[in-house]
TrEMBL record:
Name of this chain's protein: Cell wall-associated NlpC family hydrolase
Single GO biological process annotation from the record: proteolysis
Disordered: region residues: 212-261
PANTHER family: NLP_P60 DOMAIN-CONTAINING PROTEIN-RELATED, PEPTIDOGLYCAN DL-ENDOPEPTIDASE CWLO
InterPro entries the UniProt entry points to: NLP_P60_dom, Papain-like_cys_pep_sf, PG_Endopeptidase_C40
Stretches with biased composition (Low complexity): 212-231
Stretches assigned to the NlpC/P60 domain: 260-375
Organism: Streptomyces nymphaeiformis
Amino acid sequence: MAAHRKSKQSPLGASAVRTAATLALASAATATLFEGSGHADPRPTTAQVKAKVDRLYEEAEVATERYNGAKEKADEARAAFDRLRDEAARRTERLNTARDALGAMAAAQYRSGGLDPAVQLVLTSDPDQYLERAALAEKAGDRQAAAITAVRHELAAIRQLRGESADKLTALRGQEAELRRQKATVVGKLAEARNLLARLTAEERARYEAAAAARDGSGAGADASTRTDGPSGTGTAGGSSTVRADRSSGGEREPVSAPDGRAAAAISFARAQLGKPYVWGATGPSAYDCSGLTQAAWRAAGVSLPRTTYTQINAGRRVSRSQLAPGDLVFFYSGISHVGLYIGGGQMIHAPRPGAPVRIAPIDEMPFAGATRIG
């Protein structure tokens, strides 16, 4: 009979084994922690933060212009719906009036007995009186027929108006949903930019602000000596005015003639807005976004522009960069997401971005996309 071997025992007790296992797991976790820390993304530099914030602001401006377009369409749909609703109310009032008149006629007929005309002729003692009454009854019948026709017409019109109102209401709800989507996009991009900037130290934030100010040409915007000559910026008797525009290199100035009084008036208005804050979706008078400023400037000159950058670029005649004249609208980025008002000397007045007020800046600070001459 074979002898049974006794299993080999560990030199460590069960408690010691558990302790060793625990230490091994802790060591592995610690190694993983340090390894993860070793591969963590390095703290972004000020330049990297600035590049990302600039990109977020650009994306927010694209969404802002889409928001502006959706708001314009929503406002139009709401106005159309309100017009249809008001017309339906007027039609309903006319319908009720026609119905009341028809009811009064029916009641009068009932009170008169509504006898057959031949029977009335037999019963009457005065044939002439009967014939007179018959003529009046015929006229009343004509009025009754006209009243019935009017009621039918109003009913048909009201049914049509209600159908059109339902379509406009559907369109309005769609535009309002788009408005909410674009608003959420803008708010999200701006919040992300704020969070990035909040991570900078005071020294890094100062460097960022200095770089942003240099990019936006904020020094030019603070120069109160730039002006439009002529009464209220409307130009001279010859329909032209002289605009002094800062150059981007050191504030050198040269006289530039606006092509007409309207362009001078638009520039004069824009100049009066210098220093006012950028607020997305704003059209004045206390704050503006980029297309809101150009729209308001040309409105002050008596010209109605559409609301968004991508519609304003088609509001006039396209001109090349070499043909620019004061008053032209200048557009930037491939998506036509930013616009400024050219004032000559390679400069524009524009509402740059959140935190950067309306200011004068060189047009070469952003990728040039095109220009339009109004009028």
